Amino acid sequence: MTRLLNHFQSSVGSKMVMALTGLGLVTYVVFHMLGNLQVFEGSHALNRYAAFLRDMPILLWTARLGLLSLAVLHIGLAIRLGLRNHRARPVAYAVHEYRQASFASRTMAVSGLVLVLFILFHLLHLTAGVIDPTSADRLDAEGHRDVYGKVVHAFQNPFIVALYLVGQLGIGLHLSHAVTSSFQTLGLEYAAFSRFFKAAGPAVALVVVLGNVAIILGIFLGIVRG
Amino acid sequence: MKFTLKIWRQNGPEEKGRFVTYEAHDVSAGMSFLEMLDGVNQGLIAKGEEPVAFEQDCREGICGSCSLVINGIPHGPDRGMTTCQLYMRRFPDGAVILIEPWRARAFPIIKDLVVDRSAFDRIMQAGGYISVNTGGAVDGNVLLIGKDQAETAMDAASCIGCGACVAACKNASAMLFVGAKVAHFATLPQGKPERTRRVKAMLEAMDREGFGSCGNQYECEAVCPKDISVRFIATLNREYLRAGIVESGLPGEPGSPHAEST
User: Fold this and answer.
1) Mind listing the domains of chain A with CATH numbers?
2) For B237, how many CA atoms within 13 A lie in the half-sphere containing its CB?
């Protein structure tokens, strides 16, 4: 086991751990988006879904701690690899021209930082209710916590909407490079699938962003009402 | 033709370097980039100045000696081409051309545009070989190798070790070089017996030399004079993952008495 741990200490090993933790986080993000789409089914559906998730404290806390450790590993290794990479070229080029690197691949550190800040804000805002305590923990007609009311209230504020849209920009950029990149890092390469692997990143990014933006703008434009 | 050259001059590894501007006159369009530099150096020697140091050898795109980052691109503006095969007709008359050495911690500058690429040699010494008994040469075609495998191995083996991949990479990573070498051996039966040990040793050597890690931007592939594909980086990753699984075995299981020693 120590041998295996040592194996993942190297640069390539660290990248593999980053790829795996990243894919874990992406899976959560996709299901988070799918679950939240129930806002379009009305308050009853979303509040019941929220209560269903909350009713299993063991599952809830396992998921929370799991996500936290995935995120800590992912970010920690990103910083470690980033510092190493920075040290690998002490004197910069006077002129440097990119030939085929995508915009998303060049801005991974920035989009990652945007994501960290956005996730912290999001947790304080809708999970902990610190940023906007006015609508926290009201109950709906069935006695469930009124998550629906809270979300609808939140996205009527243009500042909140703008912040969440910036967050979606970050997640879209990050995922469009990250998902495809993770396949390469894990050594998944096969001529017949190369187009599929190449398209996977932008496709996942597009689906997640479209789903989330639909919720945000759906409420802001009054398609979903409180 | 006439060009204005801004060339990086640095007297030694520890000295401070700077760009110096030179004029190249009477350049013919059919001259290679290195011949144009030869002309500039002749002028400098005639004036009693120190000529610009740059590396070159075969001048036919096969030895991997020439380097030079030209206007921000290793080996200049064309794909699949070394600096020695780059002709001056590729540049507009009167152009300003900026010439820099490869820049990476693992490739320290020796003088002007010459860098020390022995880090690649040390990676090769760590595992870039196969062990063969001495004695009579084996007959040809004793080991039958499929056409597709032979072609894949040849694609990887065409790496000339020039280091343009490191020079182009934002992280100064040597993964395309190591990937090409590992894939070359891992594809052929002669390389199979040592594959587990090889990939570990070569990657450890790569980390030790201070190269960065791959960010999957594939700039390396774009500047590689031999068009080495980044799929060999995936092969390298796969070989490394395999080595980790093979080596660790299952938890609690005694090591196989027949396991490859490391």
Assistant:
1) 2-87+102-220 (1.20.1300.10)
2) 28
- Comparing CA positions, the residue from B192, B196, B189, B198 lying closest to residue B149 is B189
Global confidence as pTM: 0.93
Q: What is the ipTM of this complex?
A: 0.92
User: Which residues, at least 6 apart from B161, have a Cβ–Cβ distance to it below 8 Å?
Assistant: B64, B117, B120, B177
Question: pLDDT tens digit string along B214-243?
Answer: 999 999 999 999 999 999 999 999 999 999
Kindly give the residue spans of alpha helices, DSSP state H, lying in B47-191. 118-127, 147-157, 164-168, 175-187
Chain B residues closer than 8 Å to A81 by CB: 213
CA gap B192, A99 in Å, rounded = 35
* B73, containing H or E segment: strand B73-74
Cα–Cα–Cα angle for A14, A20, A24, rounded to 5 degrees: 140
What is the torsion angle, in degrees rounded to the nearest 10, for the CA atoms of residue B87, residue B92, residue B93 and residue B95?
-100
Contacts of A197 (CB under 8 A, 6+ apart): A180, A183, A184, A188, A189
DSSP string, B232-247: HHHHHHHHHHHHHHHH
Domains observed in chain B: 3-110 (3.10.20.30), 118-248 (1.10.1060.10)
State the pLDDT at residue A141. Answer: 76
Q: Which of B14, B170, B236, B253 to mutate to test the interface with A (most CBs of A within 10 A)?
A: B170
Would you say residue B260 has pLDDT above 70? Answer: no
Kindly report, residue by residue over B26-82, the tens digit of the pLDDT: 999 999 999 999 999 999 999 999 999 999 999 999 999 999 999 999 999 999 999
Taking contacts as CB-CB distances below 8 angstroms, the residues of chain B near A92 are 103
Assess contact for B52 and B41: CB atoms under 8 A. Answer: yes
**Sign, CA torsion A182/A185/A188/A192:** positive
3-class SS of residue A110: helix
